[in-house]
Amino acid sequence: MVSPNPWMILPFVLLLGAIAGMPLFAPKWWLRHYAQVALGLGAVTLGYYVFILRDLHRLADTGHEYVSFIALVGSLYVVAGGIHIGVKGQATPLANVIFLFVGAVIANLLGTTGAAMLLIRPWIRMNKYRVTAHHIVFFIFIVANVGGCLTPIGDPPLFLGYLEGVPFWWVAQHCWPMWAVGVGLLLAMFYVVDKVNFHRAPAAVREKETAQETWRFDGLTNLFFLAVILGAVFVRTVFVREALMLAAALGSYFTTRKAVHAANQFDFHPIMEVAILFAGIFATMMPALDWLNRSAPRLLGGHPGPGVFYWGTGMLSSALDNAPTYLGFLSALFGVSGANHIDELLGWQYNRHVLAISVGAVFFGAATYIGNGPNFMVRAVAEQQGVATPTFFGFILKFALPFLLPVLVVVWLLFFRG
Question: Does some domain include residue 1?
Fold first, then answer.
């Protein structure tokens, strides 16, 4: 593989800057032109790899990763949009904590995308009398990211690790202590914040929210299509897995009653936005990842500890998408260790390094809107439902730094410092 010119990282930097700044400074312009910006910058990088580097193999690998990523995320989005959960009130802080905990568990069965798309609308309806930014952000932290740390289905980077040969149950066997600490601390923080918000609400609102709750489930035939998607995860044949996921999504969409889609205010805009933006991200990040893979042994030194991989994977996962960042640092670990197969990395010497990469990618994916695909979709659905969400920088400054960062530090101190 030919090493790209470091200047070719510039399209990726420009795209990240546009995603961060344009919705804040020119929201209407960005809504009309984000596709041209993302795909245009992606085309610059693709042209460089085709005509200058002539590295078609790299393009094919990236294309396959993108198709696998968007097939899983998109099919779960469509199927989850066909299930309507009706709720009525009772958004007390304790009820909210229980809901988020259940969401964290479900994220490992349906993926963070499926769980987020299934639960975000009832979550907003539960809190409709006092829903604020912290409800959306902690939902992203717990359900759309940290909660999905126990299975390869849970989060896209772990799914890519499974495709690279990490055994399916290795994740649950080794990640559960970090999952318990991360989810537990975030739920405790949320309870305090939500309790303050609850007591600030007028008495009439609190009385409405402590009324008897009624649950109703519609569109449960879509559980069959969810099962098809989860089964497809275990199919190894290239593109057969993605074809099964697409078939499940089409079957769900055309068999779901229109009333269910209407109740969910379902449309394709959130997943289209994710597909377009991440097409640009996957394309433009290739030079950055290739430079990382080439430079990792020099940058990381001879024998870096697991903490280096935890923070390295994590910080780049918050700026890049966490799925290809996971692959980048896994490749870097191969280079540093001299291993030739994943089984060698999972041996006693580098087991914690792979664990640090896995946890770093999943947990830090919650640090920004672009860290993980479901983050964008949750924000889009919330805005579609009329909920005010933080800006790109507001998300980081008001929530990620004061709430998520302490959790990340505690996980590092407990598990990866040595």
Answer: no
